[in-house]
Amino acid sequence: MPPFLLAFLFGCISLLYATVGQAGGTAFLALMAFAAFPPHELRPTALALNIVAATSSTLIFKKGHLVDWTKLSLLLSSSVPMTFVGALIVLNESIYSAITGLVLILAAAILIFRRPRDGIQNAQLPMWGSITIGAAVGFVSGLTGVGGGVFLAPILITLRWASPRETSALSAPFILANSIVGLIGALIVGQTPSVYTFSYGAAALAGAIIGTAIGVRWLSQNLTRYALATLLATAGLQLVLL
Predict the structure, then answer these.
(1) Backbone angles phi, psi at 20, to 5 degrees
(2) Are 228 and 153 contacting, i.e. CB atoms less than 8 angstroms apart?
(3) E strands of the chain, at which residues?
(4) Model pTM score
(5) Which range is least confidently modeled, 135-149, 193-207, 214-228?
(6) Are 186 and 88 a contacting pair, CB within 8 Å?
(7) Roughly how many angstroms between the first and final C-alpha of the chain, as a whole number?
(8) How big, in percent rounded to 5, are the helix, strand and coil portions of the chain?
(9) Does 103 score more than 80 pLDDT?
(10) Cβ(132)–Cβ(70) under 8 Å?
């Protein structure tokens, strides 16, 4: 597949995922696997693109004062070190695709069928919950190169620890921090990004800027939840069927 076409597709993925605060790591990996990228380029390239897309989204959410920094710091306190641990492990590609794909489909189903109850306030994020979830999601993030937002978001929404809109604002900086640490770990074990990563990153940046603006201005809480569920299910099916 020509690099310019891949760049365009990376930009489209970034746009769609940014509408719900995600960077697109799962779809980036699915596209690269479909395009027959060398295995050693998959994880670092996805993490590099995550960093670009999540940086843009984080700045926009920060400017709009939408990020709950207290909740974010609690989640990152355990996720960052575990991301580094996971990044030092090189996972078999077929095992990764099957397991991650099934988890994403399950997460999408939970979002669709377990609807938030009207009139009930979201609970505060408990200390034990932030440490446990942050550690688990962080490890999976480093292991697979997906950034972690696709796992974090359905958990927070299902347990009512954050609204769909707040979850989007938390996901972007969460993905950014974990992707930076994950990329460092991947480089340490000898994995290197694609030589076209700069071009792909420029396209992902453009898509993230547009997608985040759409999500912040026009998507309601329910639309955000359904959009996220659709993206999770699509990425999950892509990974399972590869």
Answers:
(1) -120, 25
(2) yes
(3) none
(4) 0.81
(5) 214-228
(6) no
(7) 16
(8) 75, 0, 25
(9) no
(10) no
pLDDT tens per residue across span 194-215: 999 999 999 999 998 998 888 7
Domain locations in the chain? Answer: 3-241
Counting Cα atoms < 13 Å in the Cβ hemisphere of 21 gives 32
- DSSP assignments along 189-213, one per residue: TT----TTHHHHHHHHHHHHHHHHH
Residue with tokens 């995922």: 17
Q: Which amino acid is located at 168 in the chain?
A: S
CA angle 39, 43, 46 (to 5 degrees): 120
Closest CA to 168 of 92, 127, 239, 222: 222
Rounded Cα distance between 137 and 147, Å, is: 9
Distance CA 74, CA 130 (A): 6
Tokens of 83: 């991301």
